[in-house]
Amino acid sequence: MTSYPSTRPVYRKTRFVCISDTHNQTPKLPAGDVLIHAGDLTNQGSLSELQKTVAWLEKANFEAKIVVAGNHDITLDSPFYQEHGAYFHNQQPQDPLACQELLKSSPTITYLQHETRDIYLSSPTGPQTVFTVFGSPYSPAQGSWGFQYNKDRAATIWDAIPLNASVVVTHAPPFGHCDYSAGGRSKGCEALRKALWRVRPMLSVCGHTHEGRGIERVTWKMDLPLCPYLEDGYTFWDDPGAGTNKLSYIDLTEKGGKKLDNYYESKHQRQLTPNRVSFSPPPEGASLPSPTKHSMHSHKTALGRARCRSNPNRKKSSSRSRSRSRSRRRAVPGKDARTRDITATDVNTDSKPATEARGRQPSNEVSALEEWYSRLDGLNISAMAGREGKKETCIINAAICGTSWGQGPRKFNKPIVVDLDLPVWDGAPTLNSNLSTAPP
Predict the structure, then answer these.
(1) Fewest C-beta in 10 Å: which of 74, 133, 195, 277?
(2) What does the alpha-carbon distance between residue 291 and residue 268 come to, in Å, rounded to a whole number?
């Protein structure tokens, strides 16, 4: 078996088919390597509804099928169903354990319950790539439905997303992106948006708000470390499948000419984190791609690059893009130190290090910069250090049902197809097609 040298990672195109909010519908699915369902498989989570949907998913021809629940899949949330189930199923009470077992015991479905898995694509005819996915069913509280949280719990919930997640699947959308309701209101979660800034995954797949279906490519602003959670801009997607027989498709590969600006995988090659939940054993002889010898930035190098300054070379947005540096600093100063404006005490006009300005002598440049990072009110330095290449995330609302209940005639959307370059796992046999070396 031929192995690729770990010092020169190899990438292959991997096709994702994304759906959400099918609500008992079983649409025809285009071909792909990975199927993602971002929740609301049913209307009320009954056993018969779930049996129909799970049977449809199991018949789908994908090497990996990743599924999370949604707020309508109420039997999959045992505490909620125990308290409120009689309101929905007073004539025919359902067995939550039997409903959950349909997904947990499926031999072809990876059912994620606020957890992380490593996914190895090992088919000889597939791309033989590997990625880490985090999946969660939770959404902000609205009405009486399953898997909901109040605003005061939001940050704690989304802090669970590990930094090494390449793909994040959540039922809820992040605030301000693919989250607009029929009335034009943004109904996403701000804490989730902040978590995406911290993690900066390649893909963020969601649903929940049917009218928000679509794609936005978000560029994160990383050159103002004292002002986290900002965005440099975002670009809307023109759906080539709207009103045509074409796929609803986006190409994020190098070959496609508009590659996702997210290069952390090529530099650090997937550092492990403590909150990893292991998936099934990888193919025999397989391992995660090793870091290249040039990728191990010291904290000094990583911190030294993160200066509190604007980027003079920032590209202007295209005609389909709104370059809003999206300051999103809506919090009252003093109440949320993470989103407040920079003050004179944050940046010294006399060019002295931050620690010296407060009357202490810094041991070196690194300690001064680390002091700046430590003042980011909970932002882990590891979210910044050495991860400067993770600049862009593609956010996808893949709702199949296009209208919410009571919002007019029923409308259905196509699945969204995404092509993405992913690293080949070490030990994968050589294929001649769809190969590219690591980005510079």
Answers:
(1) 277
(2) 5
Q: CA torsion angle for 380, 385, 388, 391 (degrees, to 10)?
A: -10
User: Do residues 122 and 128 make contact, with C-beta atoms less than 8 angstroms apart?
Assistant: yes
Q: How far is CA 281 from the centre of its chain?
A: 23
Model confidence pLDDT, tens digit, residues 1-15: 444 444 567 999 999
pLDDT in tens, 217-266: 999 988 776 677 888 899 999 999 999 999 999 999 999 999 999 975 43
Q: How far apart are CA 30 and CA 27, in angstroms?
A: 10
Rounded-to-10 torsion of CA 119, 120, 126, 129: 90
Q: Which residue has the tokens 């949280």?
A: 149
Beta strands in 187-313 (DSSP E): 203-206, 214-220, 231-236, 248-251
Domains of the chain, each with CATH number or no CATH: 10-343+386-437 (3.60.21.10)
CB 205 within 8 A of CB 131: no
Cα-based distances in Å from 135 to 48, 67, 147, 176, 203: 24, 8, 13, 20, 12
Residue partners of 326: CB distance under 8 A and separation at least 6: 176, 221, 230, 231, 232, 233, 234
